[in-house]
Amino acid sequence: MIPLVDLKTQYEQHKDEFQGAINQVLSNTAFVLGKEVAAFEKNFAAFVGTAYAVGVASGTDALHLALRAAGIGAGDEVITVTNTFFATVAAIELAAARPVLVDCDPRTYLINVEAAAKAITPKTRAIIPVHLFGQVAPMDEINALAAQHNLTVIEDACQAHGARYKNRAAGSLGAAAAFSFYPGKNLGAFGDGGAITTSDAAIYEKLIALRNYGSPKKYYHPTFGMNSRLDTIQAAVLNIKLNYLPRWNEARQRAAARYRKNLADNSHVVLPAQAQDSTHVYHLFVIQVDGDRDRIMEQMAEKSIFCGIHYPIPIHLQAACSALNYKQGDFPHAEALARKMISLPLYPEITEEQIDLVCDCLNRLL
Ligand SMILES: Cc1ncc(COP(=O)(O)O)c(C=O)c1O
User: Fold this and answer.
1) What is the 77 CA–ligand 1 centroid distance (Å)?
2) Is residue 263 exposed (0-12), middle (13-18) or buried (19+ Cβ within 10 Å)?
3) 87 lines ligand 1 (CB under 6 A)
4) pLDDT of 75-85, one tens digit each?
5) Mutation choice for ligand 1 from 180, 229, 230, CB with most ligand atoms inside 8 A
6) Cα of 1 from ligand 1 centre, angstroms
7) What is the β-pairing status of strands 98-102 and 152-156?
8) Contact (CB, 8 A) for 102 and 115
């Protein structure tokens, strides 16, 4: 069996370390905002190259709270892509702002900056580039556009832990960035978790309060905040995993290179394009196929090879977004990708034999 994501092998390989760290938290009993959280925030900020990191309960909360800390709310418009995970847009709604969607570059799947420029109105306050599948959006162009129109840039780095753009890490390229530690991410916890990275002291101070009932100091509440903290147990696990992240990302890159080599001659497969100036940490290896996608996936599943679709319905066609008044045909690139994309099995521990089996199967079917 070749799963889309395998969390078991990695757990088995590092079980003793994980269990030791978790047991330490259990005996200390500082389950909320214990010292492991502060240690992880320090380590993660150093890894990303920002002054601060703030642990929160999920990537969704990280985006939502980053928007609120940047002062974005009711009446404001926030531009992002329609080909993303739903949470990017849910976070904008949670902050009471209005999502304004744009299409992607069909080659890299990343935000089309020209389309973003055209979507700017007098109400636009922020832009959320999504570093989709593990590579960084064209940040120089986005930051230049933002500077021209006085917009705040919040990176959605939920799929790009360790990716680099012109030798700077994803998460250090805007005013703030959101990360998710959902278990299947390149850096994944043993449950939900997230973090915001920033070098802006004012945003940091606001986040510290917003994640903790709006309270910068116990029982003082100058604002309404949430209960959204990274659990101490999750921070203890993440502290261990952060040490392995660079080598796990390299393993993903090796796996991706083998997929590229094995599928290079298949004219029915479009391989993911490498974005200029960005490394790719392959959170997902997403190809496009010109055959019957569902049938291909079914036939692969019959051979116990499990693929995924990220994502089958672009945001503008989601029922929850009907009030935004988009329609089929508004974003042709994202719509075409949603019909053609398949995510192939990928995780640091995937073997060459497994990759070859996936490719043999695909090459035979297509
Ligand atoms: C691009 C993107 N944004 C936001 C999120 C939300 O993160 P979480 O599931 O931790 O809330 C995710 C991951 O699930 C994601 O992939």
Assistant:
1) 20
2) buried
3) yes
4) 999 999 999 99
5) 180
6) 27
7) unpaired
8) yes
CB 48 within 8 A of CB 172: yes
Mean pLDDT rounded to a whole number for the chain: 98
In contact, 163 and 134? CB cutoff 8 Å: yes
- Under a CB-based contact definition with an 8 Å cutoff, are residues 256 and 346 in contact? yes
At 261-319, the pLDDT tens digits run: 999 999 999 999 999 999 999 999 999 999 899 999 999 999 999 999 999 999 999 99
Q: Quick check: pTM over 0.85? A: yes
pLDDT band at 224 (very low <50, low <70, confident <90, very high): very high
CB 156 less than 6 A from any atom of ligand 1: yes
Instruction: Determine the topology of domain 8-102+111-240 in CATH.
Output: Aspartate Aminotransferase; domain 2 (3.40.640)
Q: Where are the domains of the chain?
A: 8-102+111-240, 245-365
Cβ of 84 below 6 Å from ligand 1: yes
Strands 124-128 and 152-156: parallel
What average pLDDT score do residues 249-261 get? 98
88 lines ligand 1 (CB under 6 A): yes
Q: What is the 13 CA–ligand 1 centroid distance (Å)? A: 26
Closest to 309 in 3D by CA, of 9, 85, 105: 85
What fold does the segment set 245-365 form as a domain?
Aspartate Aminotransferase, domain 1 (3.90.1150)
Residue 92 Cβ < 6 Å to ligand 1: no
For residues 311 and 113, give the distance between their C-alpha atoms in angstroms, rounded to a whole number. Answer: 21
